[in-house]
Each structure stands twice: as structure tokens, then as C-alpha cells.
Amino acid sequence: WEFPDHPGFFGNSEIPIQIFQTLFQSPDEGWQVFTSAQAPDGKCLCTAVIPVQGSCSRDLRSLQLRQLLEKVQNISQSMEVLDLRTFRDLQYVRNTETLMKGLDSRLRVASEGHKALNARSFQDLKEKMRELLPLLPVLEQYKADSRLIVHLKDEVRNLSGILLAIQEEMGAYDYEELQQRVLLLEARLHACLQKLGCGKLTGVSNPITIRASGSRFGSWMTDTMTPSTDSRVWYMDGYYKGRRVLEFRSLSDFVSGQNFVQHLLPHPWAGTGHVVFNGSLYYNKFQSNVAVRYHFRSRSVLVQRSLSGAGYNNTFPYSWGGFSDIDFMVDENGLWAVYTTNQNAGNIVVSRVDPHTLEVLRSWDTGYPKRSAGESFMICGILYVTNSHLAGAKIYFAYHTNTSSYEYTDIPFHNQYSHISMLDYNPRERVLYTWNNGHQVIYNVTLFHVINTAGEL
Known about the structure:
Layout: E1 9-10, E2 13-16, E3 32-38, E4 44-49, H1 60-112, H2 119-132, H3 135-169, H4 175-195, E5 200-204, E6 208-212, E7 218-222, E8 233-237, E9 244-248, H5 251-256, E10 260-264, E11 269-277, E12 280-285, E13 290-295, E14 300-306, E15 327-331, E16 334-339, E17 347-353, E18 360-369, E19 376-379, E20 382-386, E21 394-400, E22 405-412, E23 420-426, E24 431-436, E25 439-448
Antiparallel strand pairs: 1-2, 3-4, 5-25, 6-25, 7-8, 8-9, 9-10, 11-12, 12-13, 13-14, 15-16, 16-17, 17-18, 19-20, 20-21, 21-22, 23-24, 24-25
Helix pairs in contact: 1-2, 1-3, 1-4, 3-4
């Protein structure tokens, strides 16, 4: 499955991350059908992989067309996921439309009879209306995106029908022309997804279990910034003194436990707050507050640096312990380190870190006690904190680094296996990775996007 990188998917694999129940084990035996968890609107997403067509598979043209058909099917499913991703935001904006019309009507009535209206009340009404005006371009943008999604789905459906006919009647259409149409559709889909830039977290999907393996504690991840051809998965079992990192070639290899190489780190790790960013692993060196950058290709440590004052060895861990004093993260803004110090009385510190030198660029004291946090993750410069690592957890607190302010939130978060020891956001795929009691699990996220005065996301 070869595809360009789109947010919300695993590298070059356009199979949505709601996976995997295989009904047929081999393409030679029959159709492979992958089923997803049920979507919020009740839909069930499926992917069908065609079987090998006997001797025709040895024909280059047949192989190219079959790959093209798989590509189109994956684009179609990508648009389904885009449709679901914008569903909740669109519903919210549509509901707001009625409120705006009502306020507009009240303002017109108040303007006509302003002599009998209290001046302060009139001014308050005008302020409320002014606050709602930015929602108008938001509404128009989501309406336009919705129409575009429908149009793209129709185009792909037509193209899929043509390709199915070609498989039976080889040579009816020119392969190069069809490939150009697919590339055009890919570009338009990518443009749609790129519009959905940074936003505020409003929802987390139900958990999707990818695999059950390893001990109770550990971490797993894909690269947060990598070319579209790279879909490797890294796996680190255990929470302290480990040195063995498994690198799987793809997500499907990780699911099956096959096709991996082993990296033996020169320094053991502490905790589970590791992250892979642009080909390097960032982790906390055991029994120290030293940050280490290990480069996978050269199999060497490029740099290591102490995080001044940061607690370690279970001095300031998350509530589950596990030497989780220092937690590395990556979001749309780059590399972060989350930890705490004696100077800030055990409250969570968020630091922007230079990924090349590991130098701390700027730090924020969130005021939230780290020992009360279950886990945390960064999205768009905002730190989100869960109130527990156990069953019944929710996303309870958010700290905004752009305004140095915080708020309490109430975002449901289904902790299926009742003990989370790793939780990280991947900005390239727009998903949360978790290690939950020996299960590797992912969550989709819903972000609310605000439009500026120029009308762009």
C-alpha cells in the first residue's frame, strides 16, 4: 500500500488506523477484509484487498493497474475518515448558526427601539454579537469542505468503477492517464487535509487495539516527522534499565510481530516517555536527568544533555510511578520535555527543546502537580493532562503555552485496559499512541479549528 503522507494515517499506509480483523489470511486464498471499530455516526469502515489474479499477476501492466485500484480504494477511505473527522465540528457550527440568527434579530429590534433600551444592555448585546461574528467564516468553510468531500467521493467512485472494468478487459484505458487522475485526486485530498491545521482538542475516539504484547509497561511509536515512504514502528518493552529497541518495517509487520531489526542502546532508558522525531530516538538516561538523542541510521548517540534541575529516579513521576519523571513529546511546534523540579514544588514544567542540541529554549510552569497526573501529551502547543492512569480517567487539564494560561477540561477518555503507562500524540498521523496494560492502543482525536479574519484555517 503505497501512498503519500496524509495526517491521520500511518506513513505510507492509507489503511485507516481503525484496524485489523483479517477474515482471509492470504491474498492468494481470497479477498482480505479489514473491519474497523464503529464510527461515531454508526458507519462501519471496511477495506477490501483483492486477491492475486493468477498468471495475470506476472504481467507488469496488470500489476500496475491492480496497485492503482488499491490506491483509489485507499483514497476513498481516506475521504471517509476526513468526513468523520469534520463531522462533530460541522454539527457544532451548524447549531451555532441558529444562535447567530437569533442574536442578529434581537440586535435589529434593539437598534430600531434603542431609545427605550437601557444603554448598558444595548452595549452588552452588541458585544455578544461581535464575539459571534468570527463564526460566520467558520460555518462557510465547513460547508465548503463538506461539499468538496461529497464531490471527491463521487469522483473516486466513478474512477473505481472504471478500474474494475479494466481489470477484466485489460487495455481499455491508458494507464498513464489513469495514474495522472489518481495523482490529481491525491493532491486535492491532501489540500483538504492541510486546511485542518492546529486546533483545540474537543474529543477523543474510542480506543482501537492494535496488538497485545509485552509486559504491563512500555512504549511504542512511529516517527512524528518523516517522509511518506517511512512507515516504521518502534517498540520498547519495560519502563527502566531497558536497552533493546525493536524497529518494525511497517504497521502490518508490527501487528504480526515479523520483519524487525534490533537496536541496542548504549545507555539504558528510564520511564516510557520516549519519542521518535526525524529519525532519532529521544529518551531519558536511566538514573539521571540526562536527555539522550540516539540516531537510528548511524546507530549512535548524537548528543546528550542534562535537563537542569529536573527530577529523576521516581522523584516526580506521574501517578503510576515507573521512573516517569521526564516525558518527551512532539507536536506541530516541535520537541518538548515535560518534567518537574524542586524549585517549582513538583508542578509540571513544559520546556521547548532544540532537537539538534537538546538545549532548553523556553519553559513554562503549569501549576499542575505532576504526581496527580495520570499521563499527558502535547497538541498544537497545548499540554493536555489526564487525571488518572486507571479506569475512569478523563482529560482534565489543559495548559496553553502561547498565552501561559490554563483551564480545566472534561473530555471523556475511555481507558479500556485500566492502566496506561504511556500516552503520546503523533502530529503527522493525528492520533494518540498508548501502552495500556500490555496492549498497544491508538485513539483518533477531534480538533476544533478557528478561522482568522482572512478566512483561512
